[in-house]
């Protein structure tokens, strides 16, 4: 959590950590790394304050820290903090939020 004190996304950007890829099938068969599907699920680790609309009012980001979200297959900016990979997406690029 220390990395996020050093990094705050700007405007409507959201910093996420992709969840780990499935390495085993439900039947217990190991999946080779190059056959693993790209993980589209991620956990939100930091959010910006939101974007400013034409009236000057701030529109807050739709997700909060700790949310699990669905990412688009492509896009995002890779950010390395403390030797870990994170990705920066605009709030509008996040496809959905998983609810408990």
TrEMBL record:
RNA-binding listed as a keyword: no
Alphabetical list of SUPFAM superfamilies matching this protein: GroES-like (SSF50129)
GO molecular function, one term: ATP binding
InterPro entries given in the database record: Chaperonin_GroES (IPR020818), Chaperonin_GroES_sf (IPR037124), GroES-like_sf (IPR011032)
Pfam families (UniProt xref): Cpn10
Task performed by this protein: Co-chaperonin implicated in mitochondrial protein import and macromolecular assembly. Together with Hsp60, facilitates the correct folding of imported proteins. May also prevent misfolding and promote the refolding and proper assembly of unfolded polypeptides generated under stress conditions in the mitochondrial matrix. The functional units of these chaperonins consist of heptameric rings of the large subunit Hsp60, which function as a back-to-back double ring.
Protein family membership: Belongs to the GroES chaperonin family.
Protein name (record): 10 kDa heat shock protein, mitochondrial
């Amino acid at each position: 959590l220390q990395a996020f004190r050093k990094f705050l996304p700007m405007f409507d950007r959201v910093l996420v950590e992709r969840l780990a890829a499935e390495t085993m099938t439900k039947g217990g068969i190991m999946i080779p790394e190059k056959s693993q599907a790209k993980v589209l699920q991620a956990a939100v680790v930091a959010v910006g304050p939101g974007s400013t609309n034409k009236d000057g009012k701030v529109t807050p980001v739709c997700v909060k820290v700790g949310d699990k979200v669905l990412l688009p297959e492509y896009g995002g900016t890779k950010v390395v903090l403390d030797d870990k990979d994170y990705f920066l997406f605009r709030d509008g690029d996040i496809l959905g939020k998983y609810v408990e």
